[in-house]
Amino acid sequence: MGRKIVILNGSPRRSGNTSALVKSFAAGAESVGNTVTEFFLNDMDIHGCKGCFGGHSSQKFPCVQRDDMDKIYPAVKASDVVVLASPLYYWTMSGQIRTAFDRLFALEEGEDNRLRGNGKASALLMAAEGHGFGDAVCYFDHLLEHLQWKNLGHVLAGGNMHAGDVQGKAEIQQAYALGKSIA
Q1: Residue 39, strand partner residues
Q2: Residue 74's CB: how many other CB atoms inside 10 A?
Q3: Which CATH class is domain 4-180?
Q4: Dihedral angle of Cα 102, 53, 120, 48, to the nearest 10 degrees
Q5: How far apart are CA 18 and CA 88, in angstroms?
Q6: Radius of gyration of the CA atoms of the chain, in A
Q7: Taking the CB of the first residue and of the last residue of the chain, which one, N or C, has fewer CB atoms within 10 A?
């Protein structure tokens, strides 16, 4: 039986280099029987975390805010793997992905923590014009350490100035192989 994979795609472009990595990863994951659900965050209505500590992980809607995170919460709760996909912006992940992931904190609040531990795993897919991924990878590693999730690895595709530049590069095959390795 395959695993349930959620991809949080923080790219602003559906046809960009990050999205190309996502498509390749998803194809690899689905080829071995996994179920993949992608959320293209740029097209979703997601507000920033208010830091109110009003969330309750056991509720159907764990956050006090009502927006498109209500679509993401149940998928993340039910998932085995959460993939973060983002272009590199100022040495870290995009605002789209950071905003959504900050809001997942509501799953840690309350009496029934649904985010930390629970045998989940994660991978990181990133594309960029440059190659300065160090801070983003450090953030990702610390995030997984806090969440007690298994780190499945990452694909970092630098040197991609224009949409489509990543096509034909080794990172596309690396993304496919990473997806296929999840069984």
Answers
A1: 8
A2: 12
A3: alpha beta
A4: -20
A5: 9
A6: 16
A7: N
**CA distance linking residue 123 with residue 80, whole number of Å:** 12
| Stretch (H or E) spanning 8 | strand 4-9
Q: Could you give the CA distance from residue 27 to residue 36 in angstroms, rounded to a whole number?
A: 9
pLDDT digits 0-9 by tens, 165-183: 999 999 999 999 999 999 8
Q: Is the pTM of this model over 0.85?
A: yes
Element (H, E) at 150: strand 150-157
Which pair of tokens denotes residue 3?
A: 């695993």
Any alpha helices (H) in the chain, and if so which ranges? 17-31, 69-78, 95-103, 134-147, 170-180
